[in-house]
Amino acid sequence: MLYLLLCLACCIDVTEERKATSPDSIRVAEGFEVELLRSAQEGESSWISMTFDSEGDLIVGLDDKGVARLGLSAGSENISFERLAGTETMRHIRGILYAHGSLYVCATDSQEIYRLMDQDGDGIYEKKELFQRLPYNSRFGHGANQIVLGPDNLLYFVIGNDVVMPAEVSAQSNYHDPQNDWLLPYKNDIGQDNRVGYIAQVDPDGKSWKVLAGGFRNQVDMAFNKDGEMFTWDADMEWDVGLPWYRPTRLNHIIRGGEYGWRWGTGKWPAWFPDSLPSTLDTGYSSPTGLVCCHRSQWPSKYQNKLLMADWQLGRIFAVTLTPSGATYQAEAELFAEGGPLNVCDMVFGPDGQLYFITGGRGSQSGLYRIKAKNKGSENVEVNEEKLRAVAEKKAELARSLRKRLEVLQEQPDISQLDFIWECLGSDDEWLAFSARVALERQPKEAWLKRLADTSASLASQRALIALARIGTRSDQPMIIKSMLTCDWNKMAPSEMVVPLRALQLTIIRHGDLDGEWKDKIQKNLDPLFPSQDFPVNWLLQELLVKWEAENVIERSLTALETAATQEEQFQYAKTLIQTNASWREEDLRRMLVWLQQSRRYQGGKLLDTIRKQFIEAFISKVNIEQREKLLSLIEALDKPLEGESDTVVSNRPFVKKWTLQDLENDIAGLDLLSRSTENGKVALAAASCLKCHRVGQRGTQVGPDLTGVGKRYDNRALLESILQPSAQIDPKYLNTSYLLKDGTVVSGRTVGVSSAQLVIETDSISGKTETIQREDIDESSPSKISPMPEGLVDVLTKDELLDLIAYLRRDHGE
Question: Taking the model in full, what pTM does it have?
């Protein structure tokens, strides 16, 4: 009897069923419901990409190796899992697409793309051919990502940084030959791979490869909206947080010929460079994965113009409203779904018009989910929203059509269209003007040089100078310099200086430094402008003057550094300053050492301390033996532990008062915005640590919500209330998460690091303090009711400073 029981026990599968996150733990927008259709079981790997085949089954790319089929065609009950034969050697399938009767597979870690074909319709892909080999040298797992079918039935490949562009790339590509274009290359960046992420358009047979746009970091996916326009969500380098070259995760409108400015290390271009395009929406900390537009869904009409974006790290899906604006779009994101953990890897609308998504990645538990609209797509019509969009669409239609004409001219030069190109080059629409400049670069240079020489100074001619600097030769440099000498710099607004200053930089970078006479004349005009009150202008001017070893450039750079509002600005000035070959006075050496000591208290990502140590090493090498003896105590202090350091350091200002709404209610009701001091408002913004987490115009850091246009959304009282009582109302996009651990401990904060076994939680946004927790120790998670913004930040301000701060935030900082 005992023997029989033992035999029966051996026949029973006692393996515990694995479960993905329950739908009960997932919050979704009103009017929708979430279903968990299947959880990955032991031996079924982790699922990271997905596509529907012609039979209605899901094909999923696996995290380790191979491709599998989830049998959905017979219904959502008892969905089968089957590995596809012949895919076992394909490693880390980050992109997959069924189209043209074929299955296209990006085997990222195999550095290859395959085309699989089921020639007899039996569900077995018996034919496998190498579609393309894409070697990459990344140390961070980047490479070929998703594959998307365009409205033109061509294939669009989403390729991350460090990937070789194929030899088959067409000469008609809108984007080619990316260069770093650094005036003062930082020594630690020199020699690094300068390949950038890009978007490639490919025919079904892989014979024609056109690179449409580039300058991305590691964009994982892309999507087409109903206008046929392309969008991607690019990843950040979170180790750079707190440094001037940090770029938040960003939604990009992809246009043909577009340059988006990612470069290696410290050399990432700022969004305001005129030879780059800005982001459409900065989204703060996140880990972008899947994208999909809703216009082919069976969802209510209010969602038809929205874009869904999946955040793997923080377990969220955003719904982004895209509003036509000139030749591009404005974007506004709202939280659509959230769970913990809900590491969404990919999303796609199924044949039933509902959203399917998978979780997984880095060996974590996978699940297949469906989000269904409770109402049919024809219901819940938002008439007012549709009318507003129709008006915006009508205004933008012409600009988009003009931009598309210019994109054709980027591929097919036509000198008869020079008048049209030139007219668009002077447009106030930045996206239209950018496309025109790229189109101009594709026309024979001789066809437009005379026009440029005969044209008086204008925005169009200055943008044409950037084109000439990019494609011209040394012999074209005098024309650029003569144009620089005609600029009346003293009468130009800061925003008007950026284009000619960047054109000047580009001709030096690509054609060589100016001859002595030219350099003396230009420098004489530029010298009095530095330092200015404008960070972008200072950035460009300081680099030029440091390169030329201008008189007193060290002292002036130190003044800019010491008066800068944010640590990011300070690090940029310091980076440029330590590259000077000019002689340092002892007084200036002391000032720099004082700043280096001060910078040790600044918080940021993993690389901030590394960069600071590089700065110290580079600076100390400039101090001679005699100076070193006199400054020995300051130098040695850089290696000593910091005294009086607190985890909750907010400001070095003294406490003034614990401000309440009642203290200021009467003052705020009658606040005269025009009478308040803008300069004092700027000072208060920095003193209250606002810029450590928020951006206002070009100043600050994108950790919390962007405050640039906050004055258009809130009145005086509401703005004051949000500052004094930050937890009263919290934007869902910036909610912290509270994790209840099995031992009863609660850890609340923002997830800044993720692995299959651990989460790294930033528990204090001001100090950057973190705590590591094990996934297996998490009992449950929920949104925190406490704002990431601490209370009391403005308690170091006087009443007048607080009122100046409110008035400053109410102003328009969009310029």
Answer: 0.81
